[in-house]
Design goal:
Layout (H helix, E strand, L loop, with lengths): L4 E2 L9 H9 L5 E3 L6 E2 L2 H4 L4 E2 L6 E9 L4 H8 L7 E4 L6 E12 L6 H18 L10 E2 L7 E4 L9 H8 L17 H16 L5 H17 L7 H17 L2 H20 L3 H12 L4 H8 L3 H6 L7
Antiparallel strand pairs: 1-9, 2-3, 2-4, 4-8, 5-7, 6-7, 6-9
């Protein structure tokens, strides 16, 4: 159905999907020959390793999922009701697989990134993990390198340009998932969102400090939070988060920002309810004259709750 095709990693340049994968890698990704240890190498050397970092710290090109049972390929292609992955990398000894789904429009994690797409990505990933029965504790820091001959690598009929996140979301039914704040805070990309949210409040309290002082202040705080995850983020990912928060806080005048927000809220209220200044004054005059609250509401054609919001209290 999905035209499963085995790839020759030694000829990755001849495979459009593998060539695209190599092009998407960071220039200096983390990589390793064994689990539980990694180092940074340039791309040319990194692709020779058994494990490799699929996404750069600032940009997500792939959603990578880990299936720890021997029926992973069948689950991915037939049982889960999901589009086929771009790459399937299988362990020859136990048939466990890593699945890589390319994202059509990369999600930028920090710097000029917006939090909404990051949280959306985290929820989509969380939904895919649930549908596939994938390992929820897999952090996605390192994946089986599809260019290593230690594994068997397959591709499918997945579109080379990748999947739009909204398209993937149709298969996981986001309405049945927890809210953005609750979804997978200790899993996958949810860790990035959670670490950002927990660290940024410390930056807001020190917003008068310089950029470098903020980085120095926030780095150990973020590293401490990160150490609490079952699978922590890489240090360079933590640093990018810290720098993003420091950049924002050092450039933002929170007093001006709060005043602008208050003015915006007043304008929204006025557009929704109209300018009730004269009615409020009438209500105060009537109340001072001893008119009952119910009668005031009737005369001014407003609710009693509106009068309460204006500070008008019922006479006892």
């Amino acid at each position: 159905m999905y035209n499963l095709q085995k790839l020759d990693p030694s000829k990755w340049q001849d495979s459009p999907v593998l060539a695209q994968y190599v092009n998407d890698l960071a220039e200096k990704p983390y990589c390793s020959y064994i689990k539980n240890y990694c180092h940074i190498r340039n791309k040319k050397r990194a692709i020779e390793h058994v494990y490799i970092q699929p996404n750069s710290p600032i940009r997500v090109n792939y959603i990578v999922l880990d299936i720890d049972h021997p029926n992973g390929i069948h689950t991915a292609l037939y049982d889960a009701d999901l589009p086929p992955p771009h790459l399937i990398i299988q362990n020859n000894e136990n048939a466990h697989v890593h699945l890589a789904y390319r994202v059509k429009n990369p999600v930028y994690m920090w710097g000029k990134a917006r939090s909404k797409p990051i949280r959306y990505l985290a929820r989509v990933q969380y939904g895919m993990v649930r549908k596939l029965g994938a390992d929820a504790s897999y952090g996605g820091n390192l994946m089986k390198n599809p260019l290593s001959d230690v594994w068997t690598t397959y591709t499918t009929t997945a579109p080379l340009e990748g999947y739009d996140l909204k398209y993937l979301a149709q298969f996981v039914n986001l309405d049945l998932l927890p809210s953005d704040e609750e979804a997978a805070n200790d899993q996958g990309f949810g860790r990035n969102c959670n670490l950002f949210d927990r660290t940024r409040v410390h930056g807001y309290k020190e917003n008068t400090a310089s950029y470098s002082a903020l980085v120095e202040h926030l780095q150990p705080i973020a590293e401490n939070y990160n150490s609490q995850y079952e699978v922590p983020l890489f240090l360079n990912e933590v640093t990018h988060i810290v720098r993003s928060i420091a950049r924002y806080c050092s450039r933002t005048d929170f007093t001006t920002s709060n005043k602008a927000f208050s003015a915006l809220q007043r304008d929204r209220i006025k557009r929704r309810w109209g300018d009730n200044t004269s009615k409020q004054e009438q209500a105060r005059i009537l109340a001072s004259e001893g008119v009952k609250k119910t009668e005031i509401a009737k005369q001014l054609e407003v609710n009693r709750s509106t009068l309460t919001r204006w500070g008008i209290r019922a006479k006892k």
